[in-house]
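Re: your question about NAD-dependent protein deacetylase

S., sorry for the slow reply, the queue was backed up all week. Below is exactly what I fed in.
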Amino acid sequence: MNATEQLAAWIQESSRIVFFGGAGTSTESGIPDFRSAAGLYQTEQHSPYPPEELLSRHFFDQHADIFYDFYRGKMLHPDAEPNGCHRLLARLEQEGKLQAVITQNIDGLHQKAGSSNVFELHGSVHRNACMDCKQFYTLHEIIQSQDTVPHCTTCGGVIKPDVVLYEEELDQTTLYRSIDALSSADLLLVGGTSLTVYPAAQLITYFQGKHTVLLNATPTAYDSRADLLITEPIGEVMNNVDQLLG
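Result:
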């Protein structure tokens, strides 16, 4: 039995699956990750500001124009489509086998594929709000805005994406719901993440179930604790699993 067949077998015998994913989940959908050789942090090294600073709360507050120039140019991918990973997870949720998707991604592709029980640790580009009056704005409205920094049409306040920037805390309700799902899961699938971003990466320590499967192109500090390691592209692997499940 090869690794893909083993994964399919464990999925078949499980009823409380949780998926914990990072940026690598969406690279096959055309969205760059952050820390790989071709990732955002590597390709932006020659910018006057490192990405970690550009994506910090203090930078947003002080230089919203530069932030939005980077954000619109590098982090918004409205035409991206779900890949095999997103689609299989949506199927497993519909079949009652998947409890939750816990994602560090902000792209909304899990929901686009059909998943509904998605815990977005770092927020979503699809939710935006005026910092003053809290008026909601869609991603489409942000993209269509003619202003470098989009402003509220009601009160004129600055609109901020509902994404967690450096120096901001994660939403506590999302954290607690993630911990609850992990604590009761019988199979944990970890995909497309370097497991280096805290406190998000620490969440998987709450899993006490039967099997942990790690699907990641590069080694992580968690490899020795996984029951199965798969390094092939996650979308391709999940497509193959989908076919094996019939």
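DSSP finds ten helices and nine strands in the chain. The chain has a mean pLDDT of 94.

Happy to talk it through on Thursday.
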